Amino acid sequence: MNEEIYEKYEPVIGLEIHAQLLTESKAFSSSSTKFGASPNTNTDPITLAHPGTLPVLNRKVVDYAIMMGLATNCKIREKNLFARKNYFYQDLPKGYQISQDKTPICYEGYLEIELDETNTKRIGITRIHMEEDSGKSIHDLDIDTLVDFNRAGVALIEIVSEPDIRSSNEAYLYLTQLKQILVYLGINTGNMEEGALRVDANVSVRPIGREKFGTRTEIKNLNSFRNVEKAIDYEVKRQIELIENGGEVRQVTMQWDGNANKTKEMRTKEMSHDYRYFPEPDLPPLLVGVDWVEKVKSAMPELPLTRKNRFVDQYEIPSYDAGVLIADKEIADFYEETIKKLEDKSTANNKLVSNWVMTEVMRLIQDRDTTVTDLKVSPEHIAEIVDLISSGAISNKIAKDIFSEVELGKSPKSIVEERGLEQVSDTSLIDDLVKEVISANPDSVEKFKSGNAKVKGFFVGQIMKKSKGKANPQLVSDIVDKYLN
Amino acid sequence: MENTKEIIEHISNLAHLEFDDEELKAITPQFSKILDYIDELSKIDLEGVEPMTHVLEDVNVMRDDIVKESITVKEALKNAPKHNDIFFKVPKVFD
Q: Exposure pattern of A287-309 as b/e (b: 16+ CB <10 Å)?
């Protein structure tokens, strides 16, 4: 189809994110939430819905939900009710999921995403509510379906966005920031492969300029940000082509098939859901007063975007650098730790540290497929390197040369001392060398004086050679200037 | 009630229950009565009345986030009609 036709349409996207909360025990029972435990070891009579059992709310689930609400500019609801969401499936022992229906604990929030250096966009957050996870079914190991209830009852928050997202890239930016916030708050691992973070996308298209939304489809089973982007792009294209060919989009649930790289419709029988929500009588109302919210607020760690802006203000590094450094909380911590260890606390050194972290340190992490905390290189090491460079003790080139040893955990200072790599910055020593070279080459001095500026390079080269490469090149250049002019 | 049959079909579908003609014949009038009763209740004017969701007036009943050992895998599986050493088993369902 003609490319121009696609540009006549505008995608309208809303995202629903389920995030497992990093509590030790489940939302409504004292079972462990440890990931990867042997099947059905993390259960108890509440998880398994034995008759006569009653759920009891885990206080930390509420703390974490409030935290996420505050981090996304939400209002926090004072009077909360839990609700039963009823459906019949083997991974749900009670026959209903405890969730929140009409009274989500957080509502009317937003997130600012950075489209580029200068433009931001506000994505509305409709609601964040607390609920419990289901068990896991395994369909391909046995004639029967096998069920593991370790995950059943693990606390989740569901974060629902407004349909404010207009492209797969905006969806990516929104998700990236949400994940950063969850990880910074320490309430979610951010691990999509382990299912700690799961995304559903609601996608529709409309001709540009029309206010009314088109019919939307819901795409489930998106287990990576890359798949979210791919699925949205595929679905937008599919819907436009369908409409252009005279068809109509039906409101269906789709599944993303990562192998075929396409969305496919789920069978209608599976979607004939009628959840018959009603208030959960087993859990009394939850009242969240101002005091509680204030207490959570005062214990909140710094958020990624705040940290980014602080890096720019406090360390005077470019916004780009700050963005790269804060993307991973541990790397941002490493950066700040390095700054603390610097002897020379000049602004120029802050940028120098940033360069070393963004290139050498991040390259090491990538090459070794590890995390910054597992590296042998420490903030002290990077601080030493930067101090050595900025004091003129070693050149940038020598610093890079010795990094292969620093990588193994050796102190840069001791490497420089042991190998006598220190730059010569003694002015009188260099002065003698310059005088020596100049008096030995009267012809070249004449050439320079008659206007051949290139000859200066010859002098500098000769002097560097005499110093075995250790003379400070900047000083050499300055002193040569002094004698020649 | 006119559409009792459709409602029964819908509800039994959601609950994964199947009824034969004989059973349907027996439950339809019973079910119809229940629906009529609910219809009757629906007629009450509740404008401005907040729903009473709980009989007791307790609020904020919570526990600290502490893991407690409970039952073993063996005990967990004990009452299941079908299981192996570590998993519950149910008839194959397709996703």
A: ebeeebbeebeeeeeebbbebbe
